[in-house]
């Protein structure tokens, strides 16, 4: 933004053949940016490279280059209005921006339809070609990963709270407001306060029905919704390594629910095998330095963890499943940018197979992207959901924020695999939302009350 | 910009929410469209807590709040409304989205002032220097220090928020090159 911070600027960074250093080589030797080496965390190293600096310190203000940004049909109109009112005719780089109209689509009313139409027109004028809606719809936070638009070592800034999901591939990923996104769209840069890093190490073997979602719910439950206020949450340990890549994404996705700026997982072989074929551009993975300074480090033994349930009306209001008494439900929603991956769909389908949803319960299953949707059709997951008496929809984030496709009425109770259970989040301010993993959600749909697959 | 505000202390507790306590989100909409004009939004600030707040609050008054001021879905409208009333903010902590939005809204703020709600009382006369990070309680004769916002962010607030700062930057970019506001060099495509 206006005014370079005191120590900002591009000083001291040699650029190899006009390329920023982090793109200089795909094989990526450790980057030496001049001066004595300083031990930095993974987050600090990514930020330093994008600020053109050899070192950044926690809490300082920096200006960084942004590799990728996006918006949706909620923030998009505000972002585009800023550009239009400033008479901006050209964006910084149309390749570095995408739009996903996935909240109120397929257009739920006239106003939503008008919004999508206006946004399409704007993107056409600006040369922004990546527009996801209709036959290629998907939730941006998931699409960025699926489409290879957020890569290890990069900076992703999305116009959505849960843009931090991208940290699951080893990127610095964070969400910002619509005017911040407008500034990025124009300048390709943004300001950031370098977060201190808190390291969370998960050791031991995950028990049955316990997923990445439960790790993050348990963590938020323990440390609170401001437990990582303005910090970077770095997730590590053998339990994380053991998880398939897509099952890790729930952790950085919900980092924002602990108040964090970003959540991040160091890329390993599994990450690189996952990201490699999707990548839209060369990238160089970045790793934290040994001896880097952390604000705090917490170790968690996961071997005695249970599936977690976040009670209304905060994600931190968690209880282990065994302590949940009879909670009857009206709706079960399986999907969202937290748990709308193919792994989540498979988990739900395994439990629903050959069973029926309890009477009076509305089960809504929504894959996060068209790619996942297509895969569900191939594997018979859609049919399993229908056979069980559920609804299987094309991608949208509708019910997660009470926009459409399953809005809650007064006094209704929903079990949801999404990430927020604030008052009024999914509709009526007199409704209740409980957050769980897909195994528990599917079992709950069959039981008609919150419960475990072991009870079926 | 005058960074010193003097006025009445309006003290609130912890966890004030953006969409309910600070400014009810439904009131942001006029005929289905979100309003972002501070002069219009100011009529609804804190009215769910103190119904006649907008009439009683005077420019220069200071809102003192506890932890997690501005929690919930990151909607900027309440902060714009506070700017419309000419208020300043001293809070024990704010979520990071709210931190960015204070700057975007151009609201003079000291967002991390631990224990401030234990030091001052509602109705006290306060004088706050937002650039120096000093809160003086004139009624009690005490002074509290807090870390001010970084200079680069104060500059954005002085311009009236991020939209105005962006306008200034774009105006200067459209002029011949020069100065630290010059555009960052465009990087070659890496596709």
Structure characteristics:
heterodimer; A: 456 residues; alpha/beta; Aconitase, domain 3; 2 domains; 5-stranded parallel sheet; 17% strand; globular; B: 191 residues; Aconitase, domain 4; 9 strands; 29% helix; disordered C terminus
Molecular structure report:
- The complex is a heterodimer of chains A (456) and B (191).
- In chain A, 28% of the residues lie in helices and 17% in strands.
- Chain A has 456 residues and is of the alpha/beta class.
- Chain A is globular and about 60 Å long.
- Chain B has 191 residues and is an alpha/beta fold.
- Chain B has one domain (4-169): Aconitase, domain 4 (Alpha-Beta Barrel), CATH 3.20.19.10.
- Chain B has 8 helices and 9 strands.
- A 7-stranded mixed beta sheet of chain B has the order 6-5-4-1-7-8-9. Chain B has a two-stranded antiparallel sheet with strand order 2-3.
- Residues 177-191 of chain B have low confidence and may be disordered.
- Classes of the chains: A alpha/beta (456), B alpha/beta (191).
- At the A-B interface, helix 5 and strand 7 of A face helix 5, helix 7 and helix 8 of B.
Oligomerization status of the protein chains: heterodimer
Biggest interface, and residues per chain?
A: A-B, 51 and 44 residues
* Span between termini of chain B: 44 Å
Number of domains of chain B: 1
Structural class of chain A: alpha/beta
What is the CATH level 1 assignment of chain B? Alpha Beta
CATH topology of chain B: Aconitase, domain 4
> What series of H and E elements makes up the topology of chain B?
EHEEHHEHEHEHEEEHH
Q: In one word, what is the shape of chain B?
A: globular
* Low-pLDDT regions of chain A: 1-33
Q: Count of helices of chain B?
A: 8
């Amino acid at each position: 933004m206006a005014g370079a911070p005191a120590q900002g600027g591009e000083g001291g960074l040699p650029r190899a053949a006009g390329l920023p250093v982090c793109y200089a080589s795909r094989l990526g030797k450790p980057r030496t940016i001049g001066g004595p080496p300083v031990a930095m965390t993974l987050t600090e190293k990514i930020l330093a490279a994008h600020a053109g600096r050899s070192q950044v310190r926690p809490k300082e203000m920096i200006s960084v280059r942004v590799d990728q940004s996006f918006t949706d049909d909620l923030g998009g109109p505000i972002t585009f209005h800023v550009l239009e009112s400033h008479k901006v005719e050209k964006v910084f780089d149309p390749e570095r921006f995408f739009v996903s109209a996935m909240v109120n689509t397929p257009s739920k009313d006239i106003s939503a339809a008008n919004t999508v139409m206006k946004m399409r027109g704007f993107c056409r004028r600006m040369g922004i070609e990546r527009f996801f809606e209709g036959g290629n719809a998907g939730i941006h936070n998931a699409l960025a990963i699926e489409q290879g638009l957020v890569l290890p070592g990069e900076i992703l800034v999305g116009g959505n709270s849960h843009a931090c999901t991208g940290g699951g591939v080893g990127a610095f990923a964070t969400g910002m407001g619509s005017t911040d996104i407008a500034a990025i769209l124009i300048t390709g840069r943004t300001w950031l306060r370098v977060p201190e890093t808190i390291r969370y190490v998960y050791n031991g073997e995950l028990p049955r029905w316990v997923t990445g979602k439960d790790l993050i719910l348990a963590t938020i439950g323990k440390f609170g919704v401001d437990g990582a206020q303005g910090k970077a949450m770095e997730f590590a340990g053998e339990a994380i390594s053991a998880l398939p890549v897509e099952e890790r994404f729930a952790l950085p996705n919900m980092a924002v629910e602990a108040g964090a700026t970003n959540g991040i997982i160091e890329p390993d072989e599994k990450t690189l095998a996952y990201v490699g074929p999707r990548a839209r551009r060369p990238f160089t993975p970045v790793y934290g330095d040994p001896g880097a300074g952390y604000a705090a480090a917490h170790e968690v033994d996961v071997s005695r963890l249970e599936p977690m349930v976040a009670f209304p009306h905060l994600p931190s209001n968690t209880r282990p499943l065994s302590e949940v008494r009879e909670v009857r439900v009206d709706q079960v929603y399986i999907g969202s940018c937290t748990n709308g991956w193919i792994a989540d769909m498979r988990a739900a389908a395994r439990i629903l197979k050959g069973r029926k949803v309890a009477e009076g319960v509305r089960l809504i299953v929504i894959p996060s992207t068209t790619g996942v949707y297509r895969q569900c059709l191939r594997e018979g997951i859609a049919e399993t959901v229908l056979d069980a008496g559920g609804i299987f929809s094309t991608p949208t984030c509708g019910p997660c924020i009470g926009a459409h496709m399953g809005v809650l009425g007064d006094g209704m109770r929903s079990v949801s695999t999404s990430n927020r259970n604030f008052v009024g989040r999914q509709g009526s301010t007199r409704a209740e939302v409980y957050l769980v993993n897909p195994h528990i959600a599917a079992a709950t749909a069959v039981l008609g009350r919150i419960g475990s697959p072991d009870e079926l | 910009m005058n960074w010193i505000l003097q006025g009445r202390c309006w003290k609130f507790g912890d966890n004030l929410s953006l969409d309910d306590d600070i400014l009810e989100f439904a009131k942001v909409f006029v005929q289905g469209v979100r309003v972002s004009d501070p002069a219009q939004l100011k009529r609804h600030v804190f009215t769910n807590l103190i119904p006649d707040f907008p009439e009683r609050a005077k420019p220069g008054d200071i809102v003192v709040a506890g932890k997690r001021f501005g929690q919930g879905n990151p909607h900027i409208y309440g902060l714009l409304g506070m700017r419309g009333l000419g208020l300043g903010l001293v809070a024990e902590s704010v979520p990071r989205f709210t931190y960015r939005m204070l700057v975007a809204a151009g609201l003079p703020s000291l967002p991390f002032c631990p224990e401030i709600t234990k030091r001052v009382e509602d109705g006290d006369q306060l004088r706050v220097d937002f650039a120096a990070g000093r809160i003086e309680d004139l009624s009690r004769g005490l002074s509290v220090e807090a870390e001010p916002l970084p200079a680069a962010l104060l500059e954005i607030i002085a311009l009236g928020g991020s939209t105005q700062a962006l306008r200034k930057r774009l105006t200067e970019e459209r002029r011949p090159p020069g100065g630290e506001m010059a555009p960052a060099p465009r990087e070659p495509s890496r596709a």
